[in-house]
Design goal:
Helices cover 33% and strands 25% of the residues. It is built from 5 helices and 10 strands; from the N terminus they run E-E-E-E-H-E-H-E-E-H-E-E-E-H-H. The structure holds adenosine-5'-diphosphate.
Length: 279
């Protein structure tokens, strides 16, 4: 970022990018909620060539105990990039980058979770990057908030996240790897769509104030689109159509009919003898 030069043409004569996208276009995004059986909540995100899994456990007793907060829950995020997630095998285990990303995602999530409801507990969020192509912190945060909702953790809203940046003097949305490596700036953003609060904002590279504002507006607009996909994923898992429960409705109707008949028979049996057959 910022300084590494390349012969690759990041924006062509038509103003299109390496993968044919317009500057303000997102990569294709797919989100699925509740993909893991053993976790309390989970989500899977495919975003361009990024593949990210998020799993949530808790609220549960906080370990190590000295990290417990008597007034509220803590959100502990663990972001990990699999060795096979990038073309050169990544050295397994935590490094400075994964610690930084885990920290910023924990802090962002603590803004939306009603932590005061669960004193002394921990809400553990695991983010596993299975395939990476830049923007994994945004994909991880987007997945994590859907996984938290899937776990039934009370929150004021989801968090939607997306980066904008600058390549070949053009402000662009949702940078892929080459744009991240050889571009001039990268600005990952995370917002709480219902309130418009910013819960994640970083910047790598150089932008003028005007360029920064354009990038921020572009990323914010994208976050609202991502928010719709997040809500769709949750609806997909939790909404039932009338057709899905047609069998149950029929059974319930039969039960009602049966108990109605039983009631009628009981009422007939209850009629006193002197009232039977008229007077
Ligand atoms: P983000 O994934 O949030 O954009 P970075 O800007 O730090 O975070 O990384 C950009 C991309 O660089 C990653 O998505 C990944 O494709 C690649 N990358 C990061 N760390 C490594 C690494 N240790 N080895 C190989 N590629 C890496």
């Amino acid at each position: 970022m910022g300084g590494i030069t390349t012969d690759i043409k990041l924006i062509d004569e038509k103003g299109l990018r390496l993968d044919g996208r317009r500057p303000d276009e997102l990569r294709p995004l797919k989100i699925e909620a509740g993909v893991l059986r053993r976790a309390d909540g989970s989500a899977y995100v495919e975003w361009g060539e990024n593949k990210v899994l998020a799993a949530v456990y808790g609220p549960r007793e906080c370990h190590p105990r000295h990290r417990q907060n008597p007034a509220r829950a803590i959100v502990q995020c663990n972001y990990n990039m699999a060795s096979f997630s990038v073309s050169d095998r990544k050295r397994p285990g935590p490094d400075r980058r994964s610690q930084e990303i885990s920290k910023i995602i924990s802090e962002a999530l603590e803004h939306v979770v009603f932590t005061h409801l669960f004193p002394r507990t921990s809400i553990d969020v695991y983010i596993e990057v299975l395939q990476a192509n830049a923007g994994t912190r945004c994909a991880g945060l987007t997945a994590a908030s859907v996984a938290l909702a899937d776990a039934g953790v009370p929150m004021k809203d989801l968090i939607a996240s997306c980066a904008a940046g600058k390549v070949a003097d053009t402000i662009i949305l949702d940078l892929r790897k080459e744009e991240d490596n050889f571009g001039q700036a990268d600005v990952p953003l995370g917002i709480v769509p219902r309130t418009g609060e910013i819960v994640l904002l970083q910047m790598d590279g150089d932008l003028t104030v005007e360029e920064f504002n354009t990038a921020l507006t572009m990323a914010t607009d994208a976050c609202y689109r991502i928010y719709e996909t997040q809500k769709d994923a949750l609806r997909q898992k939790y909404c039932v159509s009338k057709d899905d429960i047609a069998g149950d409705i029929e059974e319930a109707a039969e039960n009602i009919e049966e108990s109605k008949k039983e009631n009628e028979l009981e009422q007939q049996d209850d009629v006193p003898d002197d009232q039977e057959g008229g007077q």
